[in-house]
């Protein structure tokens, strides 16, 4: 399997972002990413799917996605990341189920963006969470949205100034309510993939005489990322894009905070049965099976069986616990950074049936 690192939630000048695709690909190359999925609000920008080549041999695959929401809804809710559709589906936004069905029919994958999102009155931001939980057929949840988490720390102007200058003092992990919802859905036997993204816009903010691009794209491309495992890369942008979206939809990978240390090389598997399985894969449960992980750096880890809580944990670069029964097993790792433990790796589940 080939490991690719990318950023899957960002906005360009086609909606409310600052930069366009060529500059974004260059920023991604500097940040060490392999792919980007641009998810402009209610616009599908066609003709941008291609590999960008950079000196030194680095290549970045740019892909078009779309973040769709019903623009006349009061209040504003239900942002959906539609990846790999190849077409604009914004007209279906008023009916979230019809929209998800159309994303699937187009061969794409739908993810509920920032499902629990706080309001931030200081910066005039509304709460944009998901409310229509009766929908079916979505591939997964955006468990960690960088901007959504940042909004949750803006209690007063002093905090806003501090965290705008030093966001890494604030950012520490996915929203607990989102994680609880994810575990509940997994415990019901559903397959729900986790993704994470920076929701990058590249905006500059002014506060008195101070004007600063608070979250440059390149900074965010080093922060909340997606790591996916794919069978092969061909060099054909459309085929490689399909392989990446397919891995995201199946959950063959993990959500990472690569700023403290790159999570490249992380591996998580169920072993001991007739066939092992990695994240997003199935294996039939057999007594004596273990869940094992290799961590690319020292971290505090725990393995969770959805609906049953933590089945084991520890500190180090290797993880191993025995699986007490069938279920969806996932790993979380936290690493010390800026004075305390911060979320580092949030693996998609291995499904033992
Ligand atoms: Zn959004
Ligand atoms: Zn967004």
- Strands, count: 19
Question: What structural category do the secondary elements indicate?
Answer: alpha+beta
Distance between the termini: 23 Å
- Average pLDDT, all residues: 96
| Uncertain segments | none
Topology:
Blueprint: E1 2-10, H1 21-30, E2 35-41, E3 50-53, E4 59-68, E5 80-83, H2 96-105, E6 109-112, E7 140-145, H3 146-151, H4 157-165, H5 176-187, E8 193-197, E9 204-207, E10 210-213, H6 217-221, E11 224-230, H7 237-250, E12 253-257, E13 267-271, E14 282-283, E15 290-305, E16 309-322, E17 327-337, E18 340-347, E19 350-352
Parallel strand pairs: 1-2, 2-4, 6-7, 7-8, 14-19
Antiparallel strand pairs: 1-11, 3-4, 4-5, 5-6, 9-10, 11-12, 12-18, 13-15, 15-16, 15-17, 17-18, 17-19
The chain binds zinc ion (ZN) (2 copies).
How would you summarize this macromolecular structure in one to three sentences?
The chain has about 350 residues and is an alpha+beta fold.
Describe the structure using short key phrases.
globular, two-stranded antiparallel ribbon, alpha+beta, 17-stranded mixed sheet, single chain, 19 strands, binds zinc ion, 19% helix, 353 residues
């Amino acid at each position: 399997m080939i490991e690719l690192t990318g950023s899957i939630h960002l906005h360009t000048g086609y909606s409310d972002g600052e930069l366009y695709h060529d500059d974004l690909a260059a920023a991604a190359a500097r940040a060490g990413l392999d792919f980007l999925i641009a998810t402009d609000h209610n616009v599908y920008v066609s003709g941008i799917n291609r590999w960008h080549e950079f000196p030194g041999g680095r290549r970045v695959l740019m892909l078009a996605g779309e973040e769709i929401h019903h623009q006349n809804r009061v209040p504003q809710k239900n942002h959906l990341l539609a990846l790999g559709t190849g077409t604009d589906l914004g007209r279906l936004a008023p009916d979230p189920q019809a929209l998800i069905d159309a994303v699937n029919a187009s061969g794409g994958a739908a993810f509920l963006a920032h499902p629990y999102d706080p309001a931030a009155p200081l910066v005039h931001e509304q709460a944009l969470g998901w409310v229509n939980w009766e929908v079916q057929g979505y591939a997964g949840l955006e468990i960690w949205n960088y901007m959504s988490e940042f909004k949750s720390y803006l209690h007063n102007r002093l905090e806003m100034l501090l965290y705008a200058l030093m966001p890494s003092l604030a950012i520490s992990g996915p929203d607990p309510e989102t994680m609880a919802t994810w575990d509940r859905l997994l415990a019901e036997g559903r397959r729900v993939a986790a993704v994470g993204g920076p929701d990058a816009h590249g905006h500059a903010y002014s506060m008195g005489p101070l004007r600063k691009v608070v979250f440059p794209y390149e900074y965010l491309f080093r922060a909340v990322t997606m790591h996916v495992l794919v069978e092969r890369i061909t060099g054909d942008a459309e085929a490689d894009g399909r392989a990446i979206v397919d891995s995201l939809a199946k959950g063959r990978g993990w959500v990472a905070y690569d700023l403290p240390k790159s999570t490249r090389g992380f591996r998580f598997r169920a072993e001991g049965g007739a066939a092992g399985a990695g994240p997003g894969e199935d294996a039939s449960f057999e007594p004596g099976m273990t869940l094992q992980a290799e961590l690319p750096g020292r971290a505090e880890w725990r393995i969770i069986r959805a609906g049953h809580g933590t089945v084991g944990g520890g500190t180090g670069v290797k993880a191993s616990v025995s699986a007490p029964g069938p279920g969806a097993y996932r790993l979380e790792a936290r690493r010390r950074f800026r004075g305390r433990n911060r979320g580092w790796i949030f693996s998609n589940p291995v499904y033992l049936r």
